[in-house]
Amino acid sequence: MTEQEIFNRVKEHHEEAKSLGYNVVATILQGSQNYGLEIDCEEYHSDVDTKCIIIPSFDDFCSNKGRISTTYVRANNEHIDLKDVGTLFELFRKANVNILEILFSKYYIVESDYKDWFEKLRSYGERICSANKCQTFRTMSGLSMEKYKALKHPYPSIIDKIEKYGYDGKQLHHILRIANFIGRYYRGERFKDCLKVHKNSRENMDKAKLNWFSLGTAESLAKMWDDFTKEIKDKYCEEHKNDPIDEKMYEILNKMKVEAYKVAFRKELSL
Length: 271
Hints:
- The chain is an alpha+beta fold.
- It is built from 14 helices and five strands.
- The N and C termini lie far apart (43 Å).
């Protein structure tokens, strides 16, 4: 897909979320296109999936019904992951890497009322990611372990892959990508730069996604790189066990959450 085609698809997601009745702040691409790992061939087509930041209605907020975390599946099987701003910011604090990546994607659509707010949020991207860096490393290692455990699990949606190859290449792909990321992040590269996979590191990730490896090779690669990720996590957290958490950053996020609520509720209540 061209960049314009990706932008157009993100815009479709944005408008569809609004048509469902959500008060949308922004819709941001997540996944392979952010890493430079999209594939479009006869055997595999990378979907366009997004994260959508939303604000609850004033009534829902006052009734303690403001927490929203759900996934809407479009007719073409693309996913819109809807998160209210409070839930999203909690996931930032937990250093969920699949959430943090949206701070750096160049593919996003923002409602005009929130443009300045969203750009301010993006400007804090690296600081948010490093506010509790040990937690970021722990989360990455946990994600790799999750993918390792799922490598040969016969989930209904991939049972055909398991029967044919003995493993799910997409899980192996994720293990390799996470190992590549954590190694570079440990060496001091910026979070934003680590998201983008270098061309010379991409070949095995593409082969994994296409189930090119034999089962034995896939198992060996998965174990080796999952172990590598765990070792890097343990090493970093031991070396930095006394590093303070950037609580000031989380205070800023809390203030930004309130700012977003104010914009939404003033508009809703015509204040």
